[in-house]
Amino acid sequence: MTDLFFAAAFTLWGSPVTWLEIVAFGLALAMVGCNIREIHWGWPLAMASSLLYFALFWRSRLYGDAVLQIFFAVVAGWGWHQWLRGHRSDGSALRVARLSRAGLLRVIAACLLLWPLTGLFLKHFTDTDVPWWDGFPTAVSVVGQFLLGRKFIENWAVWIVVNVVSVGLFAYKGLWLTVLLYALFTVLSVVGWRAWARRAGAAA
């Protein structure tokens, strides 16, 4: 079964595209579509897609992104619970909202702290050839996942940054179908940002 998943389905721009990458691609697109519409079934799709991408990224020596997929799979359970049962600090139902200025500053600080820590870890404890480039989307995605789980609109801005950087990273590794996926993610993140902003405005 493992051999089948890693078998090449076709070649894209000189690099093989495996069946595993194709399945993960489809699940990931369905997940983002659910997130934009606030459909909670996006979270179990995230679990399945993340586990497949773990195998793909590990094989490509993108260890930061690989470990990140395990984090995504675990946190998806938390996010699913948040969307089904979560509340704001005042006890109100969890709805789409904007970060306060203080919250926005904490998000920026968290990204600036996690990136060098992740890059240093990858540089000294793995054989990755792109520790800082791999470390950036790894670190910032942790922040984005928390914001998504708590339904803060700014999660989409974080994902735009992560997706743009990831397009370059995966192009360098020759994962061309995943490059296409993250390019689509960038566009869908803009769509999601606008959709959630309209939703928050309507609820205000």
Numbering strands along the chain, what is their spatial order in the largest sheet? 1-2
What is the H/E order? HEEHHHHHHH
Largest sheet at a glance? Answer: 2 strands, antiparallel
Number of helices: 8
Mean pLDDT: 89
How does the helix and strand content classify structurally? mainly alpha
- State which percent range the strand residues make up: under 5%
Specify the oligomeric state: single chain
| Strands, count | 2
Helix proportion range:
over 70%
Total domain modules:
1
Low-pLDDT stretches are none
Give the overall shape, derived from the CA principal axes: globular
Distance between the termini: 51 Å
Rg calculated over all Cα atoms: 17 Å
Structure description:
It is a single chain. The model has no long low-confidence stretch (mean pLDDT 89). This protein has a two-stranded antiparallel sheet. The chain is globular, with a radius of gyration of 17 Å. It has eight helices and two strands. It is mainly alpha-helical and 204 residues long. Strand 1 and strand 2 form a beta hairpin. The chain has one domain.
Characteristics of this structure?
mainly alpha; 8 helices; globular; 204 residues
What is the topology?
Blueprint: H1 2-5, E1 8-12, E2 15-18, H2 19-36, H3 42-59, H4 63-85, H5 101-125, H6 131-149, H7 155-172, H8 176-203
Antiparallel strand pairs: 1-2
Helix pairs in contact: 2-3, 2-8, 3-4, 4-6, 5-6, 6-7, 7-8
